[in-house]
Amino acid sequence: MTDSIRQDERESGTILKEELREPRKFRVLLHNDDYTTMEFVVHVLKSVFNKSDADATQIMLAVHKNGTGVCGVYTAEMAETKVVSVRQLARQNGYPLKCTMEEE
What we know:
The chain is an alpha+beta fold and 104 residues long. It is built from four helices and three strands, in the order H-E-H-H-E-H-E. The chain has a three-stranded antiparallel beta sheet. The two termini are 39 Å apart.
């Protein structure tokens, strides 16, 4: 079928180009606050972002020292899902942990 479509395109003089682009990527960030414990941030990183103990601790320290830390880079839909999951988990546990996303 593809050959017949290409033949039709050549005969009609119309060439269709399909433009394939990488989906936009977004960084998911955690923000430091004065109330959320370091242990809870590590828990979030391990449970929501599937980080190892070492990676979760490293990101948590970046959040603590720099004010923000990158949890990962995802497509828009996946990043939105992660942000919502973090916010829900934080609220359920009584923490004001802020999680956002920004285009890479």
